[in-house]
Amino acid sequence: MDTISNKVDAKGRVSLPADYRAIVKDLSSEIVCYRSLSLPCIEGCLEETLDKLASDIETSTDFFSETQDNLTNLIFGDAKRFPFDSTGRILLSEKLLKHAQITTEAVFVGKGRKFQIWNPENWEKEEARIRAEALKNRPSLQPKEER
Amino acid sequence: MDTISNKVDAKGRVSLPADYRAIVKDLSSEIVCYRSLSLPCIEGCLEETLDKLASDIETSTDFFSETQDNLTNLIFGDAKRFPFDSTGRILLSEKLLKHAQITTEAVFVGKGRKFQIWNPENWEKEEARIRAEALKNRPSLQPKEER
DNA sequence: CAATTTCCCATGATATACCATATACATGTT
DNA sequence: AACATGTATATGGTATATCATGGGAAATTG
Known about the structure:
Chain A is α+β, with helices and mostly antiparallel strands and about 150 residues long.
C-alpha cells in the first residue's frame, strides 16, 4: 500500500483511497477509526481487528481485572465505526481531526492490517524521522560510495 | 464503541446513543445497569452478558473464584433492568445517578460488550489517567499492534 | 383524588444518503 | 507520439432521514 493524499471538505469528509477500499469493502462496509495513542494521527482498521485485540485481552486477564478495564475503555471508548457513503467517503469526527491536526488535506499511510491518516506536514516530519531512525539502526544499509 | 455525551432531563431520562441502541435493540428491548464496583460510574450491558459472567464463574476452577463469586453477587444484587421508551431513552434511578455524580449531563463510554456512564468532569480525569497509564505500559502492547 | 410515573407526540438540529460534476487515469486509435 | 475516448475515482452540493430533547397526556400508585 502506498501513501496517498486526499482533500477533506468543510464537513470533514474524505475519500478513502480506492486501493484501501478494495481490500476493505467486500469484508465489511465500514471501517473503525481511533486516535493513535502515541502519535498525532488517526488510525484505522477493520472491526474484526479490534475484536481480536479485545478477545486477546479478555483471555489474558479476568473479568474484574483493572488492566482489562483500562484497556477496553481506551480502545472501545475512543474507536468508532465509520461507514462509507455511496462514493466511498467517510465522515471524520471533530475529535479525530483535531487530534491529527487535519484541516483540508489528509495523507493516508498503509501499515499492513491497519493504516494511518496524517496532516501532510506532520507526516513529512514523521517520515523523515522514521528514515533517520532506520538508517541509524542499520548501518549496513547505508550507501558506501557516499564519501 | 465511541464516547458520547447526552443530556439528562429533570426526570432523569437519557437517550442511549443511537449506535449503542442499534446493537442492543434486536436482541432485547432493555439493558441492565449497576453501580461500578471500583469507579464512580454506572455500568450497563445486556442481561445475557451478566448471565455469561455468572456461568463462567460457576464452572471456573480458578483459585480466586470465591472472590470473583462474591463480586458477581454484588453486581447481581445491584443490577436492574432498564427498558427503553419509544424514543430510545432510559430512566436512570436516583441511586445510580448519585453514585456517578451525574446531574444534567451523562457521558457514555463504550467498552465492547458493556459500557459505562460518567459525569463529564470525572470522565475527563479518568480518561487522562488511563491514557497516561497505557503509555507507561505501552511496550507490552506494542507487539500486537505492530502486526 | 393528588402525586408520581410511564408513555407518546412534536420540534429543531444534525448526520446521512443520494445525485451531479469534475478530475485523473488508462486504453485504444490515428 | 499525440490525441481522443471511456472508465473510475475524487469532490461539491442538496434533499432526506434520523436522532436528541422538550413537553404534555394517559396511566398508575398510594
